């Protein structure tokens, strides 16, 4: 009965790793993967995560019962506090409804399903370009997806004029997806004064901001600095949605730890919203898994472990920043044609190199370097040892 099913294409991002795994050449380099790697190219489990897991294992009172539909209550409170700040009035006024969800993707999906059912405007604007899964997640949830201009290829920076024009022309009440920090794939974030312009426009047009926060602490090394944009929007008393992921900042990728928070105007609304979130979640997966959220909660609630996490998080962010500098220096040393300063200006895990798909294909064929065809490279996949190989490849690709 399934004979007519056609072969599906590989996911454009995950497919890069599939191709990489098939390449027998030992010099191969995978810069497509969106996960942190050590200087030795290995995945990293944070020490503080190992410690938290040990505590959980040793606690014989812990059982494997189901969590409630909205997940671990303690984790939800701590997650809202992490993104909104210790002294957030929205939390104190009980205006935030939070659900533990399946990492960032699941939080986006639950938020989108909720909006499709309970919000009057089903149009969402996402930046151009954006993380490839946004279009699919929102479309599958029944929202209609439009794009707003974001990246300017000429400056390899933000097209603030185009952004303001497009959001200015959006229908009243439209949902706007914003990357809270470390925009993926471009690494280009608005400056604080540009965030303020965006906030004023969004509020004046009664648009609804939906923050995707997949890199808090991972961009600058500071959890508070990376939460700046979200906190600006919450400080004005208006509504917003926030999808948080602990994949990158705690390295909990496969544990699928995340949270959706919906900031409302009052406690009564938040409580009704929370009750409806349960109805959205129950038929999708009943309730979320217990282990990863327990690790995150253990770290967030213990001040020693929290401080240890901050140090390890900063070390990851600093290594990525240092890779930017080393790659930039290596291209300068080779006298590679063009301005490469965007490598050190962009923020977060990825650099949007500006290399086109032909140049990417050349680098894969001749240098066994794997990346998405839009020229995005993961800085976390680089090391001091592999920077010269990448710089040689870029140098050759741009002189094709
Ligand atoms: N949003 C953005 C912008 C991302 O880059 C990612 C991870 N690549 C996610 C959401 C979701 O990641 P996860 O579901 O693993 O938390």
From TrEMBL:
Q: Which UniProt keywords apply?
A: Aminotransferase, Pyridoxal phosphate, Transferase
Entry keyword annotation includes Repressor: no
- EC main group: transferase
GO terms classed as biological process: amino acid metabolic process
Give every Aminotransferase class I/classII large domain span.
Answer: 27-394
Q: Where is the signal peptide?
A: none
The family assignment reads:
Belongs to the class-I pyridoxal-phosphate-dependent aminotransferase family.
Q: Which PANTHER family match?
A: ASPARTATE AMINOTRANSFERASE
Q: What else is known?
A: In eukaryotes there are cytoplasmic, mitochondrial and chloroplastic isozymes.
Q: What name has this protein been given in UniProt?
A: Aspartate aminotransferase
Organism source for this protein? Durio zibethinus (Durian)
């Amino acid at each position: 009965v399934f004979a007519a099913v056609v072969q599906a294409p590989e996911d454009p991002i995950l497919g890069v790793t599939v191709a990489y795994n098939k390449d027998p050449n030992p010099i191969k380099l995978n810069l497509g993967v969106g996960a942190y790697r050590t200087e030795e190219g290995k995945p990293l489990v944070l020490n503080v995560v190992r410690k938290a897991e040990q505590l959980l294992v040793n606690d014989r009172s812990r059982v494997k019962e189901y969590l409630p539909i909205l997940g671990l209550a303690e984790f939800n409170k701590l997650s809202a506090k992490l993104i909104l700040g210790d002294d957030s009035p929205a939390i104190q006024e009980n205006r935030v409804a939070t659900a533990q969800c399946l990492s960032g993707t699941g939080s986006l999906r639950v938020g989108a399903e909720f909006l499709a059912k309970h919000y009057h405007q089903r149009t969402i604007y996402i930046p151009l370009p954006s993380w490839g899964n946004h279009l699919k997640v929102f479309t599958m949830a029944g929202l209609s997806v439009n794009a707003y201009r974001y990246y300017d290829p000429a400056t390899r920076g933000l097209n603030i004029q185009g952004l303001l024009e497009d959001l200015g022309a959006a229908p009243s009440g439209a949902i706007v997806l914003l990357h809270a920090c470390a925009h993926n794939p471009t690494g280009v974030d608005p400056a604080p004064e540009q965030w303020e312009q965006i906030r004023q426009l969004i509020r004046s047009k009664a648009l609804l901001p939906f923050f995707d926060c997949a890199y808090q602490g991972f961009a600058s090394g500071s959890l508070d600095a990376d939460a700046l944009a979200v906190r600006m929007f919450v400080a004005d008393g208006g509504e917003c949605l926030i999808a948080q992921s602990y994949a990158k900042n705690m390295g909990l990728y496969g544990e699928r730890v995340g949270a959706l928070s919906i900031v409302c105007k009052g406690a009564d609304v938040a409580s009704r919203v929370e009750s409806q979130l349960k109805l959205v979640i129950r038929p999708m997966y009943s309730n979320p898994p217990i282990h990863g959220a327990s690790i995150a909660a253990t770290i967030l609630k213990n001040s020693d472990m929290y401080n240890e996490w901050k140090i390890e998080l900063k070390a990851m962010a600093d290594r990525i920043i240092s890779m930017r500098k080393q790659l930039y220096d290596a291209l300068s040393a080779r006298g590679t044609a063009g301005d490469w300063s965007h490598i050190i200006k962009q923020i977060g895990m990825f650099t949007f190199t500006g290399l086109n798909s032909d140049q990417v294909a050349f680098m894969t064929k001749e240098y066994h370097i794997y990346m998405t065809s839009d020229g995005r490279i993961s800085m976390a996949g680089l090391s001091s040892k592999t920077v010269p190989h990448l710089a040689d490849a870029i140098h050759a690709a741009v002189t094709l």
